[in-house]
Amino acid sequence: MVDQIAPDLERFAVRPGPGVAALSAVLEDPANSLLGLDFDGTLSPIIDRPENAVIHPEGARALDRLSRRLGTVAIITGRPARAAVELGGLAQLAGAERMVVLGQYGAERWDGASGEFTIPPPPEGIAQVREAVTALVDEVGIPGVTIENKFRAIGIHWRTAADPQRATAALIERARAIAAEHDFGVEPGRSVLEIRPPGKDKGMALAELIAERGVRAQIFGGDDLGDLPAYDEVVRQRALGIPGLLIASASPEQNALLERADVVCHGPAEVATWLHLLADELDRRAA
Ligand SMILES: [Mg+2]
């Protein structure tokens, strides 16, 4: 049957290139395929206060469908694993046992199969970093700049700042200096800068999961600079014979992923629509 081999690429809006073969490979062997997704900005709309973020309801529904079909569905996020599981309602999904959350760029993990979290102790020096960041934010004194305590990392958010431009100018260089002084790294994002321990990124997290699960084809979607190492890993895996499709969740704030993506969606609502298309096609083939 011809339509089993060739999905309707126009509907999936896949750019000509390696993403085409990857989509076919996922559809032909879902049990050995991985779907990896970032959380904020990809599944969950970006909002003023990150603690109030929720997964897009259609995104949750699509994940629910896909977790029944695909061998592995992974959320790979800068969020603590616990926060992603709770905000995404992931433990309640039908295929939760096939879900994995790699939190804090892979330093933390939740396994849907066991329901267990693996959370290492906070890194040395994090208390001093938090103190220094608090002092910096107090000193700069721009209303609306907030500090997020992620226990392994400290986020400085200026989405709600009274003067975002002044906030970035006043904060970024000095936050970098604090990070350097304590041998931490920085992760810039959409109206946020995170100071976090070096040594892990989303690319490494993805590589480990691919090896562990014996993945043969994959899809990865993200929206921000922290997703670029995962993009690089997908490209590296292609060269090793594991086809991969890259989704970008586009926003006016960040365009670094767009040129490299095989599929460009405009924010979490469109990502959810695309994931439903994938689920539709997998359901059709399983019927
Ligand atoms: Mg994101």
UniProtKB/TrEMBL annotation:
Molecular function (GO) terms listed? metal ion binding; trehalose-phosphatase activity
SUPFAM superfamilies linked? HAD-like (SSF56784)
Name the pathway.
Glycan biosynthesis; trehalose biosynthesis
Gene3D superfamilies the UniProt entry points to? HAD superfamily/HAD-like, Trehalose-6-phosphate phosphatase related protein, domain 2
Q: Which cofactor does it need?
A: Mg(2+)
InterPro entries on file = HAD-like_sf, HAD-SF_hydro_IIB, HAD_sf, OTSB-like, Trehalose_PPase
Question: Is Magnesium a UniProt keyword of this protein?
Answer: yes
GO biological process, any: trehalose biosynthetic process
Is Magnesium a UniProt keyword of this protein? Answer: yes
**Enzyme Commission number(s) of this protein:** 3.1.3.12
Q: Print the keywords alphabetically.
A: Hydrolase, Magnesium, Metal-binding
Main EC class of this protein?
Answer: hydrolase
Catalytic activities: alpha,alpha-trehalose 6-phosphate + H2O = alpha,alpha-trehalose + phosphate
Family in the record: Belongs to the trehalose phosphatase family.
Identification of the protein by name: Trehalose 6-phosphate phosphatase
Organism, as annotated = Naumannella halotolerans
Higher taxonomy: Bacteria, Bacillati, Actinomycetota, Actinomycetes, Propionibacteriales
